[in-house]
Model the fold of this input.
Amino acid sequence: MESVGSIIMYLIIALSIIVFSVLTVTTRKILRSATFLLFVLFATAALYFKLDYEFLGAVQIAVYAGGIVVLFVFSILLTSRPGHSSEQLVSRRRVIGILAGLATLVVAGGALWSRCSMALAQLPAMSNPDMKLIGETMMGTGDGQMLLPFEAISVLLLACIIGGVVVARKR
Amino acid sequence: MDITLIYYLVPAIIMFCCGVYGFITRRNMIAMLISLELMLNAVDINFVVFNRYLYPEATEGMFFTLFAIAIAAAETAIAIAIIINVFRAVKNVDARDIDKMKN
Done:
């Protein structure tokens, strides 16, 4: 049995995720779209906090809200006039989009429905993964520890830095 | 009322479908990238929720999400560098105008 505060918290998070993700893809002003994306990412971080993953929620806020959305806002302001609305959608394209979205919903919802008993699993007790566990898992080479993906990510980030400099430099 | 697994998966599904809809209907390349971020984020939520509800003693779902966030950041930075370069070339970020290699 969940406490009332927990249920209210869940309702706020779920409603804001749904409402703001719909607004992100339907608003015609692109800067507003980026702002609604920011709200969706904050709601996701709140969801991680609610599920007891504090470190993950902090990373979500720092990297997504602090890094990616700022990049989006910069590039939007560099490439389009503020206040400029995108043109009205032609109805054919909107119908194709709605059909693809509904098809995704049917496939994913069907997969979920076929695992009905699993979908009703209760929240089990869990102690928060503390920083010691996170650090050892990230740096260990044992079973279920992730040194190799960690190093692969660092090589990827290096390639990303070099690629960014090469792509964006002035010729 | 108990908040079971499905209560978290339904907002994630809706978020993913919004991402698909936006990716198909949008013309602006930055808006397409924003829709892509929505889809990535929905998948991250799934990883975390399955980890928390079905395997609470494991940490794999959480680490997959951490790595997915790092990859999303790298991908967005490169994509925006490419988009700004395209903007320099054609003075536009509309996906319909990027057809120089077609003809």
In short: Chain B touches chain A through 69 residues (CB under 8 Å). Chain B has a mean pLDDT of 89.
